[in-house]
Amino acid sequence: MTNIIVELxxxxxxxxxxxxxxxxxxxxxxxxxxxxxKRYSMIGDGLSHVGFGAMAVASALNMAPLxxxxxxxxxxxxxxxxxxxxxxxxxxxxxxxxSSGALAxxxxxxxxxxxxxxxxxxxxxxSILALDVTDTIFCVILSVMVxxxxxxxxxxxxTVTFDETFAKATGTRTGTYNMILAILTAVxxxxxxxxxxxxxxxxxxxxxxxxxxxxxxxxxxxxxVSAIISVVCFFTGMIVSYVFAAPTGASIVVVNLVVFLIxxxxxxxxx
Length: 271
Fold this sequence. Notes:
The chain is mainly α.
């Protein structure tokens, strides 16, 4: 095991992937707890489809994919929030409408321009080789900003997560803090797509939070344990991917799935 870890740190592209992946896993786990508790966890899946559409269009126009996808996903997060507040269009329907529409646009643009090339395949399923130095710096800066903003708005996000009605009655601008949560999620999803892919990034948001909720009883403990589980599962998935030459994103998701199943079995046995 020690030799494998040493080998992992001997490659520059793997070091970049581990730095970015650890930060993104941390961001996703922190935000995921709140999204799961608010029953809005599928927003990650919806935004990942929007991100794929934006990256596909950017690739066709020879533009920087991340620079295009981040603002597009932020706008999509704003749109999803507005649609979910509409009494006619509920949250799950809004996510389905926006995500399927964006995915269709991305597929249409790809089919009429570049075709299903390596870049588009990487956007769908992820690739650690897709992270160059510029992408790494960009991802690190935005990930640190997400973590700082989450810590800064922690109390307000906690309030709107557990009792939005009470928070609104006490004068808290719930719409503003819901929007902050959606924007942070949008940025995290776009950054994670480079490694996990559009089809798998939502797993980083859902699994750690669900696992920690089975283990812990208080909100603060759930947050801390979710962050630890997410980062540990990420590094374990990286090792599995390296040893068995398996896709990185899929390996990380499988590790999360195994831990989730183990936590469920332990909880049943302990009753």
